[in-house]
Amino acid sequence: MTSARTYLDFERQIAALDSKIDELKSLNGDSSLDVSKEVVQLQEKADKQLKAIYAKLGPWEKTQVARHPNRPHFINYINGLVCDFTPLAGDRKFGEDHALIGGLGKIKGRSVVIMGHEKGHDTETRLAHNFGMANPEGYRKAVRLMELAERFSLPVISLIDTAGAYPGRGAEERGQAEAIARSIDKGLSLKTPFMSVIIGEGGSGGAVAIASSDCVAMLEHSIYSVISPEGCASILWRDGAKAKDAAKAMKITAQDLSKLSVIDKIIKEPLGGAHRQPDAMIKSVGNAIVKTLKELSPLDSDALISRRREKFLNIGRSLL
């Protein structure tokens, strides 16, 4: 997986260094010049600055990283992790939702049901996938996939990357809230192992709908929240420009949510974020999935359901 580099506002120093490195590399064809030493020195400087910048990212900066257009999406994880993937379409009630994709496949030889949000990577695919914002039929498809997993005793994997469920009129008319609630309920009562990974944005009920699992993991620079920072700022201060303040107050980062026991694991990202080394990130997520499924495999259905429900009921109790 490769893509053109896109730099965030706080990465301007890195952009300048990378530009200089590219310029020097272009001179390598000139036999009279040896710039390899300078390239190595500049690369070391860039890596050092990148490490320093990413070591002190605030919630708003992490929000920008989580939304980075080059961050690996659901389809990239499918291509990099899943063998023999067979997509399953439709909710058997209304139609197909391209924002939430799911199906059957194998991860390192183990059969699984895997589903997740797909945002798209350019204008055409973003429109086709509705920017990863699922309609009710997407969540009803998720329920159908979980029921299928139970029937064949297969573990379920969900990859979350959405700003939230689609808030359009049609979605509300077709029962968006009811569809999300049923998906959450099915996740909590699922009789097979269930793991969720927040790979980018985990926004609102649209994320929770497929994240009521035995193990909720987050990538190091992903976010998970009841509402977007911009939406929160608009409600609290009637000023979307205060999104940075909202992000800090909402405790949306993996590190904050781990301390609050809202999530179970943090998956480390490559230096500079998942978008810089997507293949390495996909491999790390795959290793985390395999390890978690191995831990959950000895548990029977009653133990899984009891443990899962108790975990969610305990969220927030430590703060009382």
Question: What can you see in these coordinates?
Answer:
- With 320 residues, this protein is an alpha/beta fold.
- It has two domains: 9-56; 63-319, Alpha-Beta Complex (2-enoyl-CoA Hydratase, Chain A, domain 1), CATH 3.90.226.
- The chain is built from 14 helices and eight strands.
- Strands 1, 2, 3, 4, 5, 6, 7 and 8 form an eight-stranded mixed β-sheet that branches.
- Helix 1 runs antiparallel to helix 2 (36-55), helix 4 packs across helix 13 and helix 6 (136-151) runs parallel beside helix 8.
- The chain is globular and about 65 Å long.
Features:
single chain, 320 residues, alpha/beta, 2-enoyl-CoA Hydratase, Chain A, domain 1, 2 domains, eight-stranded mixed β-sheet, 8 strands, 47% helix, globular
Write the CATH fold name of the largest domain. Answer: 2-enoyl-CoA Hydratase, Chain A, domain 1
User: What is the straight-line distance between the termini?
Assistant: 46 Å
- Considering the protein shown, what is the CATH homologous superfamily of the largest domain? 2-enoyl-CoA Hydratase, Chain A, domain 1
Number of strands: 8
The proportion of residues in beta strands is 15-25%
**Radius of gyration of CA atoms, rounded to a whole number:** 21 Å
Derived structural class:
alpha/beta
Mean pLDDT: 91
Please give the CATH class of the largest domain. Answer: Alpha Beta
Named CATH architecture of the largest domain: Alpha-Beta Complex
Query: Which stretches are low in confidence, meaning pLDDT under 50 for 5 or more residues running?
Result: none
